[in-house]
Every structure is written in structure tokens, then in C-alpha cells.
């Protein structure tokens, strides 16, 4: 069986035509290296790039061709490892999932470290408090009794119930976009609550009560002011605020 | 310099490293040294699934899975290891489910299974549903689940510690030397047993599905300590990488019914693999794609790619089963996979070769003897369950089965043995390496040498190879290695010096690219992922054996590669012609 021709949209034609006009872009990066200078400084870098490339490609180009001292974390380069969350034009995004054309390259594109976590060098922040909050919510399946011989059964509907929060890649884009977290380093932050949600609403899990008690703490879910920054920041499209609301409701109704 | 002492040290915190850590932490005092935070590893990029003959949706058994694995590997698979992997696959999947992995489910609530390339019922009769999956983010779920269980068991991680040397004393494992990214400090870890689980080396190719961090660090440092590397010429090119970018689009897309098409809209795989069609093994599909392109049936103005067509599949199916990869097409190409075919090309994906081990994960120092206390598992290792071409999903299986085995074996070894004395000045070699780079006043740049390395590898050592192209690669790499001696870095500091580490990683890539090219040049046959146009058939008389590459150091310090060969373990399947 063969289909005679492949239909082409204008978008596909544009992708295949290639030969994009290269543009000159300025990246304005907030640099910080306490080994050299106690205060952060903004530094401009000019690049000639294809606007369909990623912001991460631009950072790499700077590091590899202009200034090897520029420091940032990166690994997978396609939005699944969570290494390169940063503030791009004032908004939290993954550098590898943001195309230059989508962040208004006519003006200088600003890049700075995510907020609320200590900046250690350039775009590198201390992730330990973030991971500590994650660990505090007991992010693992808790069950009672003996394990079954085969798999635990779970209906497709029950599996779907917590699908959204399984997508989390622990990039901290949500937590570091939260004004409550900026002002109160004790707050668990959205990412930890998302990961608690992932287990509270898993039909196989029997640790929900313990987790809810942890989140009922004064630094827990009640600090959330529902600003939706976290949902907007999530590069995985998780409805973070909704997940937090569901955890709040579960605390009141004890139904999950 | 700091000195630490642990019973067991695990190098790497991807799937294999964390699976090993969950076992060893419960048995011996364990430290996991990882250059990335654990959830950043590239296990998370795996999409399609993990095969096991659960027979949840149709008849299946582990023996059929073993046959497919052996045939997929073009008979270079060690069959005893493949039997173990396919038999233990069932428990490996069930263990993950019990750890909490949210698999996609059948209507009965069991783990759902789908088709995958090269996996068949009854020895090649027809495709079989064997891949257990969680939408198209199975690797992500495995990585998260393993990390969650590491948290549960209190696994001790040293994050952003780069292991740069292996310490041996009279041929026995004494520990490793690591560089702490945050401070630039050197740490010596004395250990009774060491498990390498540091992943692949796919960054020596330009079009690659691999993370920036996959630079073969474990393979390179073991090799420089005089230990062999096995079958490095066998590198897998995944058929469906996003055109030019190399980002992986899962074979699960074809498992769900996706079709490869050329510029005429023809389902060309029907000509190359009449039974399995688009679900033939990856080496077969990648060669078919390049043949279409070479013969003028490629798509686009330059005819340099083909299409992965999902447009005939219902949008609900794409949303439920392939949400991430359809999102990749939208994000990176700006096209709508509901209605547009996706431009793809083969992308460098997976090293079948690596540090040779036996089925307990013990590292071999020659064809028969092991290095006491040294283990390896996952892509860094070569057991060899993948032979000349890995089947899709078998890597997630490999890391779970052999990660677990290595973790248990390493802990048992530590409990039964004493520490081996550290060699004198254990940090010496690493200190010299980082000081040399930091103080270098050379004129060569890391970025430029890496770019040229990737260009020669793509041009000369990819899907199609000849003696002439491989000689070109060997020459180019030798020249780049010379230039590398004159490399310098701009960041001279101690704090988060990623400039320095990229230079170290480039040194690893150069050494391993050379091993790949030299091993490939010597293998004058075509088998699995290694295709020689000048020797287009498999030669079981001369080459039904594993390559073992050793670094030789001459009196003047210059190095060369010595090749030896190791017999393949054959149990129940004699080599046959490979057709799909």
C-alpha cells in the first residue's frame, strides 16, 4: 500500500526550504563570578544566528567561540533533563526549549539566573534547597502489606488521574517563579507539591495521609497565593496551580 | 585534596547507576559520584518502552525475545547474556511497577504493551506487543522512579563530581579520583568495589540524539588504565532523528502505526523489509533511509531527509500515546504532526560497545580474566547483549537488569574483601591533567576541535563506511589529537569551571573516536550497525568475534591501539541470514 503524494502545508515548506535569513542578536547576560568580582554585572554579546535556533544554542556559541568563562548547566538540549531553567526576558524558561525567534530578537534578549535560589556563578544556582523540599514530601510510592506477585492493577482512569504531575522534570522553573518562594525560603514551593500530588492521587499509594500532614505545615500548601506564575513557567505544561488546589482540597475533604 | 572511604563507589546516576545504588546501598556503604544531578541523566530521554515477555496483551515468551535480541544483534550477541536479560526482563518490569512506575495500562488494569522494531512473535513471524511503556516518556518515568527509590533508601550522592581516574593497585581496584565542579577540589575515593555506570559517548557525532554530557568519560579513563574496550565500531544510528537537529523521535511512533515515506509518498520500507516493514531493526531502517536519499528519493529541496508520517493516526491516539514527540515537532520545527509529515534523518544514538564485562557486571581485563572489584553496567559497558545492533527498548532493559546485578555483585564483593591500599600520590594524574589545562597557553580551542571531530565522524564513520572513509577519519582524528595538545581554556578559575571540564571531555571523545575508527577499519565485513560498502556481506568465518581494543604506550609516551579478538558465546541460535 502506497500513498501517492505527501501533502505539504506552508509550515512544512518553510521548514524544508531552510536558507533562513541569519539575524544579528544581542544577548544581555547577568554575569556573576565571586572569584573575580563581588557584584553581578550585565554583559552584552552579539551573535549572528538562525532565529529558529534555541537560546541554548546561542549560549553554547558564546561559550565555544567568544567567552569560555560563561557558565550554565545543560545536558539533553531538548527539554527533558531540566538542567537549563533560566530567566529569559524576565520569564522562567528552559533555554533548550525556547527558540530565539520567540523571544523578540529585535531587542537585546536578557538572560539571568532563576530567582529565589543562591546564585553560585553566572546562571548556576544552588539546587540543594530545591531538592531538599522535594525529598521532604516523601516522593516515593508508599504501600502496606506484601507486594503482589505480578503488577498492581490500576485502571486506565486511575492512571490518568495523576498523569499531569508525572511529567515533572525537577527543573525548578515553577518554584523559582513563585513570589512566595522568593520571599520565604522555607516554603516547599510548587515543584515539591507537584511531586506530592503525583503520589497522593496515585490509586496504588497508601501514604497520602502522611504527605498531607507534611503539606499542612505552615510552610506548606496554604502559603500558595494562587498567582499562576508556576503554571505559566512550567516547560512541561503541567497545570501546577491546579495540582496545588487539588492538594488543598484533599486536605480539607480528606478525599483523594 | 580530600580522601574518602566507601565500601562501594558508583560512577554515574542514570538508570544503571541508580538501579545499582538501590541494591548496593542496602548491602554496603555506598557513594554515588555523578557529574550531573541524578535526574539530568539521558536515561530520561528514552521514550518508547522496555520490552519484557509479560504476555499481557498477546502470547509471548522470553525465548522469542532472546531470539529477536540475538538476531537483532546480527549474531554478535553473547547468547548466555541475552538469555539472562530476556528472562529477568519480566521481573525487572514488575520491580519497577512495584517501585511506583506509572506504566500505561490495559483495559484490565495490567501493564499495557505495544509493538517495537525487531520484536516479533515466534522467531520473526510477525510483530509482537512486547514493549511496556508510559506514554512516550518511559525513560523519564524510569529515571524519576529510580531517583524516588534512591531517596527512599537514603542513597548518598555526590552531585557534580567528575570522576577522572580509576585507581588500581597491582591489578586490583583501589578507588577513583574525582574533581568537584563547585570548588575545583580533587577528591580521592578509596573503595573496595567500583561500578562504572557513566553512560554513552555519542557526542563525537554531529547529528546525535545524545546529551551534551555524553562524552564517554568512563570508557576513556578505563582504557587509559590499560583495560580493553569491546566492539567500539558498533554504533547505532536511530532512523528517526529530527532533521538536522538529531532529536530523537521514538520508534514507538512506528509501533503505533507511523510510516516512513520518501518524496514520492512511497512507504519504502516495504521494499527493504517485507514482513516487519517500518518495524525492521534500526540498522536496516537507517540504511534504507540513506539509500533512498542517495538514489534521489529524499525529501526537500536538497533531498537530504525522509518523512515520518503520523497524519493517518487519530489525533487522540497521538495525544495519548505520543504526546512528547508530537510536541517536539511543534516546538522545534513549527509543524503540526496531526496534518504534516515530520522531516527526519538517522541520528547517532547508542554505543553497542564499551567496557567488557561478564554477566555479573565484572570488568574484563582480557578475554577471560576479571579486574577484582571493578564493575560496569549500562551503555558504558558491553556484556554483550546488543552485539552489532541493539533492539529498541533493550537499553532500558539492560540498565535495569545489569544495573541491578552489578549493584548486588559489587556490594557482595565489598563485604567479602578488604580495602586495597591506595597507590602513592593517587591524585597525581588528575592533578597534572587539570593543572595542565588551566595553565596552558596554547592556541587551539575546544569548540573548534570538537566541531571538526564531529564533522569527520559524520562524514566518514556513520551509516555507510568504506576503508577509504575510515582511513580519512583515523588521519583526521590523529591530526586533531595533535592539535588538542595545544588546546587552552579561557576560564582559569576553580569555581564551576565548566570550560575546563569541556576540555577534559573533548580529550575523552578524541580517544574513543580513534578506537571506533581503528576498530571499524579492521573489521572488513558488514554486520548490524557496522556497514562497509567495500565489504557488504557478513563474514562469519573471519569476524564472528568481538573486537578488543587496548591502548599501548611506547617508551617515549606515545600511544597506539592494539586490536585483539574475543569469541562470541553461542548457545542455542546458529547464525542465519538476517531478513525482516
TrEMBL record, chain A:
Cofactor note: Binds 1 [4Fe-4S] cluster. Binds 1 [2Fe-2S] cluster.
First-tier enzyme category under EC: oxidoreductase
Residue intervals of the 2Fe-2S ferredoxin-type domain: 23-117
Record Pfam families: Fer2_3 (PF13085), Fer4_10 (PF13237)
Domain 4Fe-4S ferredoxin-type residues, every copy: 158-180
Molecular function as annotated in GO: 2 iron, 2 sulfur cluster binding; 3 iron, 4 sulfur cluster binding; 4 iron, 4 sulfur cluster binding; electron transfer activity; metal ion binding; succinate dehydrogenase (quinone) activity
GO biological process, one term: tricarboxylic acid cycle
Cofactor: [4Fe-4S] cluster; [2Fe-2S] cluster; [3Fe-4S] cluster
Pathway: Carbohydrate metabolism; tricarboxylic acid cycle
Catalytic activity: a quinone + succinate = fumarate + a quinol
EC numbers: 1.3.5.1
Domain of life: Bacteria
Record keywords, A-Z: 2Fe-2S, 3Fe-4S, 4Fe-4S, Iron, Iron-sulfur, Metal-binding, Oxidoreductase, Tricarboxylic acid cycle
Family note: Belongs to the succinate dehydrogenase/fumarate reductase iron-sulfur protein family.
Protein name: Succinate dehydrogenase iron-sulfur subunit
UniProtKB/TrEMBL annotation, chain B:
Subcellular location: Membrane
Catalysis performed (reactions): a quinone + succinate = fumarate + a quinol
Record's bilayer topology term: Peripheral membrane protein
Keywords: Electron transport, FAD, Flavoprotein, Membrane, Oxidoreductase, Transport, Tricarboxylic acid cycle
Residue sites binding FAD per the record: 12-17, 34-49, 217, 379, 395-396
PROSITE patterns, A to Z: FRD_SDH_FAD_BINDING
Pfam families with a match to the protein in the record: FAD_binding_2, Succ_DH_flav_C
One GO CC annotation: plasma membrane
E.C. designation(s): 1.3.5.1
Signal peptide: none
Top-level enzyme category: oxidoreductase
Cofactor(s) required for function per UniProt: FAD
InterPro entries for this protein: FAD-dep_OxRdtase_2_FAD-bd, FAD/NAD-bd_sf, FRD_SDH_FAD_BS, Fum_R/Succ_DH_flav-like_C_sf, Fum_Rdtase/Succ_DH_flav-like_C, SdhA/FrdA/AprA, Succ_DH/fumarate_Rdtase_cat_sf, Succ_DH_flav_su_fwd
Binding site for substrate: 238, 250, 349, 390
Family classification: Belongs to the FAD-dependent oxidoreductase 2 family. FRD/SDH subfamily.
Protein name as catalogued: Succinate dehydrogenase flavoprotein subunit
Single GO BP term: tricarboxylic acid cycle
Biochemical pathway: Carbohydrate metabolism; tricarboxylic acid cycle; fumarate from succinate (bacterial route): step 1/1
Organism: Streptomyces rubellomurinus (strain ATCC 31215)
SUPFAM superfamilies named in the record: FAD/NAD(P)-binding domain (SSF51905), Succinate dehydrogenase/fumarate reductase flavoprotein C-terminal domain (SSF46977), Succinate dehydrogenase/fumarate reductase flavoprotein, catalytic domain (SSF56425)
